[in-house]
Design goal:
Blueprint (H helix, E strand, L loop, with lengths): L5 H6 L9 H10 L5 H5 L5 E4 L14 E17 L2 E10 L2 E10 L8 H6 L5 E10 L5 E10 L5 H4 L3 E4 L8 H15 L9 H6 L5 H9 L4 H32 L13 H6 L7 H14 L6 E6 L5 H14 L3 E5 L3 H14 L7 E4 L5 H12 L5 E4 L13 E6 L7 H10 L4 E6 L5 H7 L4 E5 L10 E4 L2 H13 L3 E5 L9 H15 L7 E4 L5 H12 L5 E4 L12 E7 L6 H8 L10 E5 L5 H12 L3 H17 L2 H6 L11 H17 L9 H12 L9
Parallel strand pairs: 4-6, 8-13, 8-14, 9-11, 9-12, 10-11, 12-13, 15-20, 16-18, 16-19, 17-18, 19-20
Antiparallel strand pairs: 1-7, 2-3, 2-5, 3-4, 5-6
Helix pairs in contact: 6-8, 8-9, 9-24, 9-25, 11-12, 21-22
Bound molecules: adenosine-5'-diphosphate and magnesium ion.
């Protein structure tokens, strides 16, 4: 390694580290490791305690064995047509141990060559491997790594707590461990600290170099935990700074236009709704209107459980825009839902002079062109659609308000993109998966939050029970016989191979031919052409079908009041949020409704998930439980989780650090709004490199 200043070495490509070279550099890149700093931030996925050799007098079933001793005997033999074994007997302080290496297949070159050279009678070595029941009843060790006692590198791998990394083809555990160890040994002491010293003191955190060394090669587990805390704090601090800055940026923007509450549309709209708004709806509409009338653009999250009446709230906001001569956009996650929203809006807005149009990717080129032209000419007041609304050529001359429904389908990054596209846009984002507070801080730090915490009257919540298929279908048939309708839902088994389609389709055939023979049964799944999906959905809503067999395409938003039964097959394969959404499709009127979860809960977690759903209909509770059971990565989708640049930090486990970091971020910015002081220089640099270059999130100019 060339002697560069420590800051510069962090930026250097790993290719130039000793032992890497171009081929391994390519492999490392697959792990996200390009520069030396990436390498040091490739944190272990686990640690093994190899400080002491394993006591062989203890029971050794299925455990990691670390043995240290002298080889007293070696043999190698063919154990079958395609397997050879190299066996060494190692005499250790606590007993003799047979150690085995395997060679599979009939490779031409001799993979035992190194063993024959190294592991010979009389040599002293360390062996690490798994203990397996031996052929003769005694245990034996299947070797994973070995180190000769006189190998100077042995001390990196044994006699200490050892990191275990995620790997990729062409990169071995041993190689990576030695590479990181070398960089740390040469440089850790000089690595620059970029967090302000007072934060470190206040929060009692390790220095950067110290933390990096200890997270990879801790002397003891408490040291590792301290290192992890420091690194988690740092990730949170940077994230919260990014959010605060982003939020401040938005607040500093000026829309350059104002809203006036004219009520030319709002009053007749409310008059013809056919119901009174709930108090929660009125409160939230006021929060939104206050926001809209501020000079800076709104970025507001509206959370409210399934059925809490978000659509009417969104529509009120859109009407305020239209009253003021502006255009609005309403974006739904699926075509079915976009379709349904359009129909709902048409109903609520009947006889009012509001021009609605729809844009999805299924429109034919000509229809699309016509719609776009009308939008461009300002002849559309509210455009409803899917992600197709985000496409380049969709241009609204007077777009001021965009509503995004069911935000949990929508990544942090997409949100940022949207905001960048139009800095004067007011954004209302709606979700029915309430987000626990800790998570909201981390995920939606740039948003203001409104909550609908009251359900409209006249709804029954669907009762949820666990049942066998037969029992569920019997009940279903009775309900259908009295004129109600039912859903039967199958999980997506494998999106990529389209197996979901196969299973719902096959099941559809089976049910139609067997248990549900004689009933009007329709099928709907995600891979069907959009037109067909819409048709089936409309027919079902109109009562033409008694039973709808579906994949989770019907998960969000579908609103058919006459549906009173839902049977969810393989319910253990769904996430809790999905199950909660799904059952929200029934119980949408005064009709008593019931949701059957048909499942074998194979794991205690699955068991817990289903129990929670049976016990509670409160979306907030379910959100919390879900987060506890699955961790944030799965809860919000791994892709989104990755977007947050949180590698060690765990939103749930490290909740206390998160709020500490949030406070510190706030202080730092209050004192030094653009992070220009010397003390904040390192912070500023990290922040820009993490969130600005790749994301365009923060601007410290
Ligand atoms: P979600 O919040 O899940 O999107 P919706 O907006 O689809 O809920 O509303 C669910 C149902 O409740 C719809 O049929 C809607 O018309 C109805 N609804 C909304 N607000 C009220 C209210 N204040 N009183 C009675 N029904 C309402
Ligand atoms: Mg909805």
């Amino acid at each position: 390694m060339e002697q560069l200043p420590a800051t510069d070495i962090l930026k250097q490509s790993v290719q130039y580290l000793k032992g890497v070279g171009p081929r391994r550099a390519v492999a490392l890149e697959r792990l996200g490791v390009k520069r030396v700093s990436d390498l040091l931030h490739h944190f272990p996925r686990d640690w093994q305690d190899r400080r002491q050799p394993t006591d062989l007098t203890r029971p050794l079933v299925d455990t990691l064995i670390v043995a240290r001793g002298r080889v007293t005997r070696v043999e190698h033999f063919q154990a079958g047509p395609r397997m050879a074994i190299y066996k060494a007997t190692v005499a250790t302080a606590t007993g003799k141990l047979p150690v085995l290496w395997f060679k599979h297949g009939s490779r031409r070159y001799d993979v035992f060559e190194a063993l024959k050279r190294d592991v010979v009678r009389g040599c002293d070595l360390w062996v690490v491997g798994r203990s397996e029941p031996g052929l003769l009843g005694a245990h034996e060790v299947h070797a994973e790594e070995y180190y000769l006692e006189d190998d100077p590198r042995a001390a990196i791998h044994v006699g200490r707590i050892v990191p275990v990394y995620s790997l990729t083809e062409g990169i071995t555990q041993r190689f990576l461990r030695e590479l990181i160890h070398t960089v740390l040994a040469d440089r850790a002491a000089q690595l620059p600290e970029y967090l302000p010293g007072r934060f470190l003191e206040e929060r009692r955190l390790l220095a950067y170099g110290q933390a990096l060394r200890a997270v990879h090669f801790p002397a003891a587990f408490p040291e590792r935990d301290a290192a992890r805390s420091r690194l988690a704090y740092e990730e949170f601090l940077l994230l919260e700074l990014a959010w605060f800055l982003k939020r401040r940026q938005t607040k500093e923007l000026s829309k350059g236009f104002g809203y006036e509450i004219r009520k030319t549309l709002l009053t007749p709209f409310r008059g013809q709704l056919g119901f009174e708004l709930t108090r929660a709806q009125i409160r939230v509409i006021n929060e939104i209107f206050d926001d809209l009338r501020r000079p800076s653009p709104m970025t507001r999250l509206l959370q409210g459980d399934v059925g809490s009446g978000k659509t009417v709230v969104a529509l009120s906001a859109l009407l305020l825009a239209v009253e003021n001569g502006f255009q609005g956009a309403f974006m739904a996650p699926t075509e079915i839902l976009a379709d349904q929203h359009l129909a709902t809006m048409k109903g609520f807005l009947r006889d009012l002079p509001v021009r609605l149009a729809m844009l999805t990717s299924r429109l034919k080129a000509k229809e699309r062109e016509q719609t776009l032209a009308a939008v461009r000419r300002g002849e559309v007041d509210i455009l409803v659609g899917t992600h197709a609304l985000l496409e380049e050529d969709v241009r609204f001359p007077r777009l001021r308000l965009a509503v995004i429904d069911e935000q949990h389908r929508f990544g942090v990054r997409q949100r940022a993109t949207l905001r960048q596209k139009s800095s004067i846009l007011d954004l209302l984002i709606m979700t029915a998966t309430p987000i626990p507070r800790t998570l909201a801080l981390a995920l939606y730090g740039d948003l203001d939050v409104s909550t609908l915490d009251e359900m409209p009257p006249g709804k029954t919540t669907a009762r949820t029970v666990r049942a066998g298929e037969e029992e569920a279908l019997d009940f279903l048939k009775k309900e259908v016989a009295v004129g109600h309708q039912a859903y039967i839902v199958y999980p997506i088994i494998d999106e990529s191979s389209r197996l979901d389609l196969l299973s719902a389709k096959q099941e559809f055939e089976r049910l139609r031919a067997g248990p549900l023979a004689g009933l009007n049964v329709a099928l709907i799944h995600g891979a069907m052409p959009g037109k067909q999906k819409t048709r089936v959905m409309r027919e079902f809503a109109a009562g033409a079908w008694q039973v709808l067999v579906a994949t989770p395409v019907i998960e969000v938003g579908i609103d058919v009041h006459n549906a009173t039964v839902m049977v969810i097959q393989n319910a253990d394969r769904f996430g809790m949020a999905s199950l909660h959404q799904l059952r929200g499709r029934i119980g949408r009127s005064r009709l008593e409704s019931i949701c059957f979860l048909v499942a074998e809960a194979r794991t205690p977690q699955a068991q817990k998930r289903l129990e929670t759903l049976v016990a509670s209909s409160d979306g907030f509770r379910i959100g919390e439980e879900d987060l506890k059971l699955r961790g944030p990565g799965e809860f919000i989708g791994t892709a989104q989780h990755g977007e947050l640049a949180l590698k060690v930090a765990d939103i749930f486990r490290d909740a206390a650090l998160l709020s500490a970091a949030r406070q510190d971020a706030q202080w730092a910015l209050a004192e030094d709004p653009r992070l220009l002081s010397r003390e904040n220089a390192g912070l500023r640099e990290r922040l820009l490199s993490l969130y600005q270059k790749e994301w365009g999130w923060v601007d410290l100019a």
